[in-house]
Specification:
Length: 221
């Protein structure tokens, strides 16, 4: 049976820096061999709503890679994740290290044309998600109450853990440097509170998953 795999990218252009990052990242996503669909909604930026819009633009699909326009994936791990969800269902984060480039490391990357050095900072969460359509529909997609950036991916992972299945694979992804919006805004605080609330509500499921998998699932959702 042939499964239709797509890449979905939440995307709003208009800023020169982000446009440049997308020009860098897009060939890496194209190299995976799947059609790419971008998504956005009118009004204040919402990564959650943009992800859902990209999923809708993709039409009928069986497996989707949700990827940000500033993140380079590790192809082999993404392929492993797709194979695994095709066989077992659910969703997988195809990395356990999201290497976050500093401004200096970004200059080095531009000079060399590849990330052939070890970045200094890594983040265990965020980044990329490989998911089946059945799992996506089971949780109703990304929760569009999340406005802006921040915590919508952790909320999504928590709901997938409860309603479908969620795990991660060892692997790498690289988040390219750019100027960041403030991490302390009313929207980010609201997002953080919603995420913490759902994780408190499902503490038992998170703890059970941690015991079964041998790592602290709650620390990296």
């Amino acid at each position: 049976m042939t499964h239709r795999v797509v890449t979905c990218v939440p995307w709003r252009g208009g800023k020169a820096e982000r446009e440049e990052l997308w020009r860098i990242v897009r060939p890496h996503l194209e190299g995976l061999g799947w059609p790419i669909f971008t998504g956005d909604r009118e009004g204040p930026w919402s990564r959650a709503a943009a992800c859902n819009a990209a999923a809708a633009a993709a039409g009928e699909w069986d497996v989707a890679l949700f990827a940000d326009a500033d993140t380079i994936p590790e192809p082999d791990t993404v392929m492993q994740a797709v194979e695994r969800v095709v066989e077992h269902g659910g969703a997988i984060r195809p990395h356990d290290h999201l290497w976050t480039l500093s401004a200096g490391e970004m200059r080095l990357f531009r000079m060399r044309g590849e990330i052939n050095f070890q970045p200094r900072r890594t983040n265990p969460g965020g980044g990329l998600l490989v998911i089946t359509r059945r799992a996506f529909d089971a949780v109703g997609g990304f929760d569009e109450r999340f406005v802006g950036w921040g915590h919508e991916d952790s909320h999504m992972a928590t709901m997938l853990l409860v309603e479908a299945d969620w795990d991660r694979l060892p692997g790498n992804a690289w988040h390219l440097y750019h100027e960041r919006d403030s991490a302390d805004t009313p929207e980010r605080r609201t997002n953080r509170a919603m995420m913490h609330r759902v994780q408190r509500e499902h503490r038992a499921e998170i703890e059970a998953a941690s015991r079964a998998r041998g790592y602290d699932v709650g620390a990296i959702l």
